[in-house]
Amino acid sequence: MELKNTIKEYRQKKGLTQEELAVKASVSRQTIISIERYRYKPSLELGMKIASSLKTKIDVLFYFE
Amino acid sequence: MNLSKKEISILIEIIFSVLFAVIFMPYFYENRLNSFDINDNVGKIIQIAIFSSIYFSVAHSILEVTYKDKMIQDERDDLISSKSYKLGYLLYELSLFLFIGILLSDSSFQNSGSIIFIILLLLLIVPFIKSVFQLYLYRTS
Questions:
Q1: DSSP string, B75-88
Q2: pLDDT at B20 over 80
């Protein structure tokens, strides 16, 4: 089982760039890129921050596949 | 290849290591069999200090002018740092063991009891502090 996410889809739906989402979540753009490409698994705190920045719930953004 | 400011900053350190190896290491290699007297090598030490200062000042000034955005330190940076420090620590430990092996097998170092003592002390203190810190992290994290 691998942890995947729908951040890219939600971000694009909200019309945000990676840079804008990074600023909202107080991380670097490279971190957002890594998470979207499943190369980095964020902590629960960062996951919550991203979910909050995208105005959605964390369980909508992250799922196991 | 699109590199971030942080990656460029790391690249600056890598290039410095390469330049240092190319420019200064031949001098120390040629003199490796001579006893090292700091008074005889003041010129070289000043050269190294001036080179390092100029290199880092120029490189970081260019970096700041080219990339105006502020570097953000986040949890991914912390994770990458701890992974690289772990590798660095393992390499230092391995190097120390190799160094001790060379010292013990080289007859010209037979009288260097103080060097052996210092290295053994380091080998004792470093893992001790590491283990105490690890235990502290397990108890508090």
A1: HHHHHHHHHHHHHH
A2: yes
Q: Which of A26, A34, A45 sits opposite B76 (nearest CB)?
A: A34
The structure tokens 């970081």 sit at B60
Burial code of B13-46, b = ≥16 C-beta within 10 A, e = fewer?
A: eeeeeeeeeeeeeeeeeeeeeeeeeeeeeeeeee
Full-prediction pTM beyond 0.80?
no
Distance in angstroms (rounded) separating the CA atoms of residues A35 and A41: 6
Q: What is the pLDDT of residue A56?
A: 95
Q: Is B77 within 8 Å of chain A by CB?
A: yes
Chain A CB contacts of B74 below 8 Å: 26-28, 31, 46
Is the ipTM here above 0.90? Answer: no
Domains, chain A, with CATH or none: 3-64 (1.10.260.40)
- Asked whether the beta carbons of residue A30 and residue B6 sit closer than 8 angstroms, the reply is yes
Handedness of CA A49, A50, A56, A61 (dihedral sign): negative
Q: Which are the contacts of B76, defined by CB distance < 8 A and separation ≥ 6?
A: A27, A28, A30, A31, A34, A40, A42
* A64 in Cβ contact with A2 (< 8 Å): yes
Determine whether the interchain pair A27/B72 forms a contact, defined as Cβ–Cβ distance below 8 Å.
yes
